[in-house]
């Protein structure tokens, strides 16, 4: 099996598991809020599965690469790798879409950690269950980021942007 097919299967598995976790949470909510929660869960699943499964390094034409913020307190790349261990490599003009796959809520905060004075200067976005946040990188460089509530368990990642 080609490695891209394995990566797509891993991503699909993460998407479906996140959907099931979110759906289970939605079933405890009653009334119109419960229906909205289920519809949001379905939309999140469709968005997650609709990603092209690429692993960055696009053609500079404005690709959108999805990184999942998971219940396992990791940022997971489209190929299934933990972004704390492997950087996401993209090109200037590409967009990273961070997607929360369930509970607990996360943040996507630029910088190496909250002790750094520049933490959050580029972006600092709350990601509750099912939410997404997109950021288009317009300059080359290395951009670390982290989750404020979970930085103590090394929930972090790095985006390397090629010119």
Please explain how this structure is put together.
There is one protein chain. The chain is of the alpha+beta class and 163 residues long. The protein has helices at residues 3-26, 31-50, and strands spanning 64-69, 75-76, 88-91, 95-100, 106-110, 124-127, 132-136, 141-146, 156-162. It has a five-stranded mixed beta sheet, with no helix packed on it. It has a four-stranded mixed beta sheet with strand order 2-1-4-7, with no helix packed on it. The chain is globular, with a radius of gyration of 16 Å. Mean pLDDT is 81; it is low at 51-60.
Which properties best describe this structure?
163 residues, alpha+beta, five-stranded mixed sheet, four-stranded mixed sheet, 2 helices, 9 strands, 27% helix, globular
Radius of gyration, in angstroms, nearest whole number? 16 Å
- Sheet/helix structural class: alpha+beta
Oligomer: single chain
Number of helices: 2
**Which residues form runs of ≥5 with pLDDT under 50?**
51-60
* Portion in beta strands: 25-35%
Q: What's the total number of strands?
A: 9
Run of helices and strands = HHEEEEEEEEE
**Considering DSSP H and I runs of 4 or more, what fraction of the residues is helical?**
25-40%
Indicate the overall shape.
globular
Distance N terminus to C terminus?
32 Å
| Largest beta sheet: strand ordering | 3-9-8-5-6
Mean pLDDT across the residues is 81
Main β-sheet: number of strands, strand sense, barrel status? 5 strands, mixed
């Amino acid at each position: 099996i080609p490695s891209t097919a394995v990566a797509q299967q891993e991503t699909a598995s993460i998407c479906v598991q996140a959907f099931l976790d979110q759906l289970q949470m939605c079933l405890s909510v009653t009334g119109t809020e419960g229906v909205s929660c289920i519809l949001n869960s379905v939309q999140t699943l469709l968005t997650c599965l609709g990603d092209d499964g690429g692993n960055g390094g696009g053609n500079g034409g404005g690709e959108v690469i999805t990184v999942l913020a998971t219940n396992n307190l990791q940022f997971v790349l489209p190929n299934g790798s933990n972004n704390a261990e492997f950087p996401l490599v993209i090109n200037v003009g590409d967009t990273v879409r961070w997607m929360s796959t369930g509970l607990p809520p996360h943040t996507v905060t630029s910088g190496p950690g909250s002790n750094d004075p520049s933490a959050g200067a580029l972006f600092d976005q709350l990601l509750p269950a099912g939410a997404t946040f997109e950021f288009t990188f317009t300059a080359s460089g290395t951009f670390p980021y982290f989750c404020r509530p979970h930085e103590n368990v090394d929930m972090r990642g790095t985006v390397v942007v090629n010119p």
